[in-house]
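Deviations from the work plan: none for this task. Representative record:
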Amino acid sequence: MNPDRSPDSASAVPRLAAAGLAKEYGHVVALDSVSVEFKPGLTGIVGDNGAGKSTLMRILSGVEVADGGSVLVDGRPQAFASALDARLAGIESLYQDLALVDTMSVADNIFLGREITRRVLGVRTVDRRRMRQEADRVLTTVRISMPSSRAGVRQLSGGQRQAVAIARALHFKARVLLLDEPTAALGPRETAAFLSLIRHVADRGETVVMVGHNLPQMLELTDRLLVMRAGRVRATLNPKQTTLRELAELMVGSA
Amino acid sequence: MTADEKQAAQTPEDGRPAGARRAARLGWLAAVSRDLYVDLALLAALAVLLAVFGVASSGREFLETNLVSILDAGSILGVVTVGEVIVMISGNLDISVGSNTGLVSAALAVVMAHSHANLALGLLAAVAVGLVAGAINGVAVAYARVNSVIATLATYSAYLGVALLVTNGQEVGIDSSALGTLGTGRLLSVPYLVIVLIVVATIVMTLMRHSLGGHRVYAVGGSQQASLMAGIKVQRYLFVMFLLSGLCAAIAGVMLAGQTGTAQPTEGSVGLELTAITAVLLGGTGLSGGTGTVFGAILGVLVLSTLDNGLLLLGVPAFWQEVATGAVLMIAVLLQDFSGHRNRLRAMRAARRRAQRAAGATL
């Protein structure tokens, strides 16, 4: 059923998979039995508006609950009731603004909810120095220039904010990174830097899923491309062997 | 890969001009030292006020008698303010602290009057009443999700009513020399009330600055959404802040009862909440949560008490004291806003740019 033409289809249990996911809004079918496995590396999802890309991402990240089917992490079905559930299962989603505390520093945000502590007189105290050191170490791996791990997140640009979120995901060894049009709000130079970061993360063997509109960019950047149309995954392509024209035709359904 | 990494590290990734990058690099300094800046400004204001009042009232006498009375007068307000500032850092407001303080003193007096002046029983009742009052606020705000201004405005009225009910609106005397000593006595010329304030403020200040719980209160106040996403039990933190505010009101109520020797459902307690909020705002804590310090709020209390005391000493009519308090708050907030204003403008422009790009990308 799944027209998987990519070369590495035979592999172990994928970190993230969808099995028969369905979702309706009133009479509109947003997802119609979507089954897909996300392998290590960068998987791109393209499709016209209303194809179901964002609905799929929202279900994978726990923001919405599917009407049918299930999300599998390491082969085990999950029942996400919230984005927190998904995050605890190792699925890290990038949100533009929601997941960062503006009034706190970069280091505080990376360790939010998982602070490094030590006991002083029986009280759990926050070890800010170690958090800053660790944050500096992770930030060098995300390769986006950051004023300082002490800087307030409020002062960061959009790309830097996303780099903080990715640094957090990497540091806590997230299983999967979900990106829904991550460069939509970035300028050209920040976009280039951000995409090279994503590529770098995928090359390390992480599982990254990214929705994008810029087709040439998606063809160049991704390891696999899912084409969605009318709530279904119509094709799984190897971007190295696909032309822009073929991709566009698959998207509008004339092929 | 390493050569690639090196190259990437050298390219300026964000497209902003060097000036903006330098400003951002200095940004942490501004962010980290903002609290310090507020504290220093308040200390300077305090020094100026003391100097002016000292000179105007010809020196020695002012310093000897009034420094202590400034601290003494500010101690009850100070303890209430400690409770208020942590609620405000968590992003809420507690308007009921004044009537809670009055209710506690009423409970203390009534229980002692009915138990042959049993102080232990009275103190137990006082603490229990303060905690229950705080817990009611906490449940309403954290779990029933009522806006804190509305919830505590409601309990402000209710607690005041209960206090008047249990005392029948009459003065109830308290027969306890120990409580009287707490209220008016001194240890090596330092009033006990001041010692209580120093102990309470130091403990809460240290916990807010260093403990995991305090750190997360700042996170919850900064963004409930992000804190929830990070797995922080937001509701529990909000609840505990109101509970602690209730505990502070309980301590303040006992102090007030000791100072006056009677139950005080209204006198000395009503209006305390607004002065406390004023002190917190003076101390650099915003209304939106996630920022501010206990230390700053205490400095705010000292500025307000010094102002009151000094103007009284100079024979300025009490009405003008109110005007002065208002003016000081307005000036302080304007000054603090001036530093935050540029950051906010910059953030707004960045957000607008992001939105424009997002719109452009989908077109």
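Residues 65 and 208 of chain A are 21 Å apart (CA to CA).
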